[in-house]
Recover the amino acids of this structure.
């Protein structure tokens, strides 16, 4: 079999009329003009390789582009179908003839490339090739890449005219590639500036936000939406730490996650990816979510997510929340992006910390105002009313000596009315003043609460306290228990008309229970809200915020029992065996 037959698989090519030199120069002119029609680098490379294939009448053509270190980074072909290319196991890496051209920087023209000393053969499924023409592409003496042509159509090898024509094309190709690279650099720079502007907008939004709850909620919604858009994430969530606890609760959710029913929505420190970030205080990223060992729920994977990044929202070394982004595809995260997200997390953490401090300041201001009002009532109004009562009592004694029975009865009613008013005011003082009692030691706080209750209401009260139950409660639960007891005993003083009350704190089967019981009039549950006003909802909200629950049982004539149940803190001490009755 002849070389020609070997080249064409045993079939001699049909002769055809070749284009004249003038026609080929006109074709070259059209080709060089087309190189500048689009400044996209990939489009430019495709036009170069197609023009070279056409001008040299090659069966196969390719262009390889090197990076600034001289390594082959882009390789684009013509003449093979996508299916043919997909079957080849590897792309060229700069070995064989390609490497020879990269080292020498000179054109190579061969009738049979397989006989060249530098030839290393073809990978599996690569089509057979014989004739070869390789032309270097360089700009200002610096190599940019090479044009490769194989299997001259209707001829055994490429000619010197083919080589001259493609070398002219390569000169124009070098300018076109440089222009495309410059254009790409400008585009990248514009994208970077746009991204930096968006990052600055996020920073400005953080620094201009106040500390009120409404402003913080709006900020979190806005920041999460911007981050989703900036990073192209399909879902995002923000978990915030419940105050004075080790629990993080879902606060804001956007994107596909809100439709996927992802559970759970609450994590303790160390649980799942959220708890891990809260514990380590470091960002975490994975693009293999399906094999993530710390994933708390498979719902994210079932919803199609593959990549997840978790960022701590921290201030002064304390993690106040965790931001998560989820992507449907395997999305690599750049170090710069992690740094940006971490910086945003720090800014949001400072806003959350400022909001917490503002809430504390507002609470303190309210407590101080309540204390001032209570003192004014006690030292001013009650003393004035008490003085009026003494005057009326003196007038009654004088009226009795004069045997004015009718006036005496009227004075008795007035004195009784004043005493009732004094009792009511003392009840409201009780509702205002316990704010000054510290709740760090819950047992001591409840003792002092009942001391003031007895003094202000003139009612008998007993405290039954399990010594270790109070210490086993989490700090948030201790504070909630105290305020619930405060609200409940104030209701006893104001509404119950009871003679006796009991406050108990003890272990239950499933946690720790606080009860406030009175033997007063009780009430109908149908009108409970009217009787207690906002007190009932306040107590229930406090219990829920601390992970507990509230129950109120009352019937007319049978007194009232308020029960708050809280989970115990596993890090706390064990319960004592015998409760202690505190008179």
């Amino acid at each position: 079999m002849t070389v020609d037959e070997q080249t064409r698989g045993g079939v001699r090519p049909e002769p055809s009329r070749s284009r004249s030199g003038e026609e080929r120069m006109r074709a070259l002119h059209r080709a060089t003009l087309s190189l500048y029609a689009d400044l996209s680098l990939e489009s430019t490379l495709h036009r170069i390789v197609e023009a070279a294939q056409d001008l040299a009448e090659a069966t196969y053509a390719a262009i390889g582009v090197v990076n600034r270190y001289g390594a082959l980074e882009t390789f684009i072909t013509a003449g093979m179908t996508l299916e043919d290319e997909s079957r080849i196991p590897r792309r060229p890496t700069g070995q064989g003839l390609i490497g020879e051209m990269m080292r020498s920087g000179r054109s190579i023209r061969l009738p049979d490339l397989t006989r060249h000393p530098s030839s290393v053969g073809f990978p599996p499924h690569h089509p057979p090739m014989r004739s070869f023409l390789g032309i270097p592409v360089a700009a200002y003496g610096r190599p940019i890449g090479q044009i490769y042509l194989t299997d001259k159509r209707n001829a055994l090898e490429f000619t010197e005219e083919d080589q001259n024509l493609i070398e002219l094309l390569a000169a124009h190709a070098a300018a076109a590639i440089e222009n495309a690279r410059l254009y790409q650099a400008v585009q990248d720079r514009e994208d970077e500036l746009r991204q930096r502007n968006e990052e600055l907008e996020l920073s400005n939004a953080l620094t201009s936000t106040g500390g009120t709850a409404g402003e913080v909620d709006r900020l979190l919604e806005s920041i999460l939406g911007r981050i989703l858009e900036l990073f192209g994430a399909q879902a995002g969530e923000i978990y915030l730490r419940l105050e004075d606890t080790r629990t993080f609760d879902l606060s804001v959710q956007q994107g596909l996650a809100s439709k996927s029913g992802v559970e759970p929505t609450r994590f303790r420190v160390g649980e799942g990816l959220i708890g891990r970030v809260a514990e380590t205080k470091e960002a975490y990223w994975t693009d293999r979510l399906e094999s993530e060992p710390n994933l708390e729920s498979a719902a994210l994977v079932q919803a199609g997510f593959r990549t997840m990044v978790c960022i701590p929202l921290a201030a002064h070394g304390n993690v106040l929340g965790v931001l998560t982004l989820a992507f449907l595809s395997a999305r690599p995260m750049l170090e710069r992006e992690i740094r940006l997200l971490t910086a945003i997390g720090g800014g949001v953490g400072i806003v959350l910390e400022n909001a917490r401090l503002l809430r504390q300041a507002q609470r303190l201001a309210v407590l101080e105002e309540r204390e001032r009002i209570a003192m004014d009532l006690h030292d001013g109004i009650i003393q004035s009313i008490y003085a009026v009562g003494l005057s009326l009592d003196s007038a009654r004694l004088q009226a009795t000596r004069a045997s004015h029975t009718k006036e005496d009865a009227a004075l008795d009613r007035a004195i009784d009315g004043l005493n009732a008013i004094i009792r009511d005011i003392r009840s409201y003082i009780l509702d205002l003043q316990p704010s000054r009692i510290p709740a760090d030691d819950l047992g001591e706080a409840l003792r002092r609460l009942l001391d003031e209750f007895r003094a202000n209401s003139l009612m008998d009260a007993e405290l039954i306290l399990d010594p270790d139950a109070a210490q086993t409660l989490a700090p948030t639960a201790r504070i909630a228990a105290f305020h619930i007891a405060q609200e409940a005993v104030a209701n006893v003083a104001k509404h119950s008309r009871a003679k006796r009350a009991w406050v108990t704190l003890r272990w239950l089967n499933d946690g720790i229970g606080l009860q406030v019981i009175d033997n007063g009039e009780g009430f109908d549950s149908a009108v409970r809200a009217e009787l207690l006003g906002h007190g009932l909802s306040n107590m229930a909200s406090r219990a829920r915020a601390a992970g507990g629950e509230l129950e109120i049982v009352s019937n007319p004539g049978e007194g009232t029992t308020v029960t708050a149940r809280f989970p115990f803190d596993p890090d706390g001490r064990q319960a004592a065996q015998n409760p202690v009755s505190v008179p």
